[in-house]
Amino acid sequence: MQVIKKFLIWSCIALFAGNALAQVQQAKGKASVTYQGWSASADDKAKATMAAQLKAIEFYYAEAGQSEAENFDAIREKIMAAPDRYILDSTILAEEENKDKKQYTVTVRVALNVANLRNAVKSNSAVVKGGPAARSPLAFMFVSRQVESTRSFDDRVYKRVDEKADFKANAQVSEKGSEGETFGRGQIGTNASVSTKASGSMQRSASIETGGSTTRRASDSTFRLLPSANLGQVFTSNFTRAGFKVSEAAMIEPYTGGKFKVATVENDYKSGMDLKPATLASLVDGMRVAQIPYVALGTLDVGLADTDSNTGLMRVSVTVNAKLLDISQTIPDTIASVGPVQYAGIGPTEDEARNNALKLAANNAARELTSQITNLGVR
């Protein structure tokens, strides 16, 4: 019975994932209009419904993040001109007419064609508007990793004790005696007596002061890299749809004159959170030799698996950090960045949960980066 239950849960999740891949999302919106006359006309209600639908789309973009919200402003006129391309279905949830204020209010739930919305955003980007000849080359390198070992250090404790003592003593000694002789019958007799008195006093005081310090050192972690060939397809598709001419960093390496090495970047990410200055400098020099103006870099850190409390399936979280560099300038400039942001994936096994989490993190990171550069008008 438990197996059947888990299978049904997983089937529902798979169905939901299929709907997500179809790029259909639900959103709610509410709007009001003021009318003339005794009651709201059909035109007034249609106007309020259209405004509520736009509010629903705006709410969807607001939840997606700041850069996505800016994208909505850029395509608002397109949506109003052809709403049926972006709204697949609309249902009125509630409507209210206040005749005293001559106001009609309606709440709707809409099914959004997110694929068309994103296409509208991308068609508005500077790269796409420039046509195929204006597509800018972009290289990317993202590594998936998991903590392999962590070394912690004991606290170093230093103690100091200062002691101070004072001692005072007084002594008095007095001696008193007498001595005499007697003569008689040819004999001499002697006698003597001694009386001694002594007194003394002693006083001692002491004080102790303690002090010291405790030094703590942060733990050192090393990472192991995870295979992420499937993630390359996720990043490639997102950056390509944004209008860039995309290549993986490994494909660019032979054309960098030996200045850029993928292995060097991977080694840095195995032992730290960011690239060393020398590694970053060699990457920039190599990409300039290969005439690549934009480079996307990032890490996807995989957490330990646990059991999802809602479904009983395995759950794995992934923390993503990403940035996009413009190296066409003398000093490279970070023109878009994401993270740290955490995403979670679930599945019947740890491997499936991890893969789902990685794909979700990669897809959202790439989408956020492309949204930011679209807003900037990057060519």
How many helices does DSSP assign?
A: 10
Contiguous runs where pLDDT drops below 50 for at least 5 residues: 1-22
Based on secondary structure, the structural category is alpha+beta
**Secondary structure tally: strands:** 12
The description of the largest β-sheet is:
7 strands, mixed
* Order of H and E elements: HEHHEEHHEEEEHEHHHEEEEH
The CATH topology name of the largest domain reads Rossmann fold
Q: Please state the second-level CATH architecture of the largest domain.
A: 3-Layer(aba) Sandwich
Estimate percent helicity.
25-40%
Shape: elongated
Number of domains: 3
Beta-strand content estimate: 35-45%
Rg over CA atoms? 41 Å
Distance between the termini: 57 Å
Mean pLDDT: 78
State the name of the first-level CATH class of the largest domain.
Alpha Beta
What does this structure look like?
- The chain is of the alpha+beta class and about 375 residues long.
- The chain has 3 domains: about 90 residues, Endonuclease I-creI, CATH 3.10.28; about 180 residues, 3-Layer(aba) Sandwich (Rossmann fold); about 60 residues, no CATH class.
- Helix content is about 35%, strand content about 40%.
- It has 10 helices and 12 strands.
- The strands form 3 sheets. Strands 4, 7, 8, 9, 10, 11 and 12 form a 7-stranded mixed β-sheet that branches.
- α2 runs antiparallel to α3 and α6 runs parallel beside α10.
- The protein is elongated and about 165 Å long.
- The two termini are about 55 Å apart.
- It comes from Comamonas guangdongensis.
